[in-house]
Amino acid sequence: MSAFIYLLLGTVDIFLLIMLIFKVFRWPLRQYASEALAIAFLCSVESYMSRIVFGVPEVDLILQNLIILVMMKVLLKVNFYYGLTLSVIGSFLYSEIAYLTYNLFGLLNIPLDLSTPASAGVYYMQVSVQLIAALVGFLLYKLNLGFSFVSVPPHDGKRRFTPKEKMNLIISSLAVVCIFVTVYVAINYGTFGINAIMVIEFCALLFLMYIARKQDSI
């Protein structure tokens, strides 16, 4: 039963992450709902295998981002350049929501047992993050926020990158490294390491949003 709950909540996690990507970039989620669910379930299975079966949670988040990137290319026909940018921004945004939710529980003195991946505290935390992420996505939609410079897929398969796009690609790639470092530090260096890395990740998210805003204004 715990495996079912893990896979179910994990699928909802990634589906909402993809939902945030769609809302940030003003794509119609309903049009690609089945593909988004397929990607979300695949990521959930990967997470279960990494964390529960093989006990290597350090690789989970980086593998999830790789799956999202590849499957967005395969199922949605998203250009690799845009896919990397979208997946990184979505992951950072969802991570920051999770981080702020965790700190909110701390401020409210609500104890959570997060010692094991399949504990009740982890599930309670997941559901709380999911509700807040859904609210953020709803607000993005209702307030018509986000960017529109990335066209709705399918995209052209091959294209030449401009010098600015090459620089943005490098920045996004470094952001992926930041994701891996975030997970490693969180697992091995405790609260201080988590706080430091999440601040860095938040700054990276703001910078990527700034780049997206500049491209949106062109």
What labels describe this entry?
218 residues, mainly alpha, globular
How far apart, in Å, are the first and last alpha carbons?
Answer: 51 Å
Question: What's the number of helices?
Answer: 7
Quickly give the structural class. Answer: mainly alpha
Unreliable stretches (pLDDT < 50, length at least 5) are none
% residues in beta strands: under 5%
SSE string, helices as H and strands as E = HHHHHHH
Q: From the alpha-carbon coordinates, what is the Rg to the nearest angstrom?
A: 17 Å
Major sheet details: none
Mean pLDDT, all residues: 83
How would the global form be characterised?
A: globular
Strand count? 0
Query: What portion of residues is helical?
Result: over 70%
Describe the structure concisely for a colleague:
The protein is mostly helical.
Protein topology:
Layout: H1 2-24, H2 33-53, H3 60-75, H4 80-107, H5 120-142, H6 163-188, H7 190-216
Can you tell me about this structure?
- The mean pLDDT is 83.
- This protein has helices at residues 2-24, 33-53, 60-75, 80-107, 120-142, 163-188, 190-216.
- By secondary structure, the chain is mainly α.
